[in-house]
Each structure stands twice: as C-alpha cells, then as structure tokens.
Design goal:
130 residues; mainly alpha; Four Helix Bundle (Hemerythrin (Met), subunit A); 7 helices
C-alpha cells in the first residue's frame, strides 16, 4: 500500500488544485474533531476519504481499485486500533499534516515519502495494538 499510495501522489501532482487541497484540509479537521469527540468510527471514515481523494487525483483507476480493496479489508482493524487507543492516533494526525504541508508547497517528492512513512507507521501501530 505504501508504494501504491506514493505512486498515486506522484501521478496526482498536476491535479492537486487549491480546491482539492482545501478538501484535504477539511477532512483533516474532521478527523481531529472526531478524535476530540472520541468517535473512532467517524475519524476512520474521514481518514478513508482523505486517502481516497489523494488516490483518485492520480487518475490511475486500476491502482485506486486495488488500494480501495486493501483499505476496505482493513477497516475493522483500523476501527479497533483507534478505539483501543482512545481515538485517532496523534502520530497519524501529525503525519497527515506533513503530507499536506508538502503538497501545499508542491514538494511532491517529500509528500510521497511522508505518505509512505505514514502507511508504514500505521501498520506498525496496528501490529502494536492487536
């Protein structure tokens, strides 16, 4: 997933309009709001929208389909992980901010690397929780 998501970011470089970046920021705020309210299910849903929006901007329909399939298979575990950790992981939120900051600076390479690290760290957090 880390490699495919990073590929999507690289391919999306030309389609990351101010509107798309604004929507990503809004989703990030929704995740933060859900975390404060201890609503793991809502945080996970907004996180899914965040990632899906990035994937779709790539125009790589087959890759998006593969990622969505993998994402859907992990939904149960993401909800359990965040519920056990009393909300969405602070580390994950910080990683999203690094991705967003790089995208807003049009530093696609840094954004792709940040996304890869985010995915790998998410898997480590999941392993530590289960």
């Amino acid at each position: 997933m880390a490699t495919l998501e990073a590929l999507c970011i690289r391919e999306a470089a030309g389609s990351l309009t101010p509107d798309v970046l604004q929507r990503l920021r809004a989703l990030q705020k929704e995740i933060e709001r859900a975390k404060r309210e201890r609503n793991a299910q809502r945080a996970v849903a907004a996180d899914g929208e965040f990632h899906s929006l990035l994937w779709r901007q790539s125009g790589l329909t087959e890759t998006v389909s593969i990622l969505q399939n993998l994402w859907d298979r992990g939904e149960y575990y993401r909800i359990i992980m965040h519920a056990r950790r009393q909300g969405f992981a602070d580390e994950s939120l910080k990683e999203h901010v690094r991705i967003l900051d790089a995208l807003e600076k049009r530093d696609i390479s840094t954004a792709a690397k940040a996304l890869e690290r985010h995915r790998l760290h998410a898997m480590q957090r999941l392993e530590a929780t289960t």
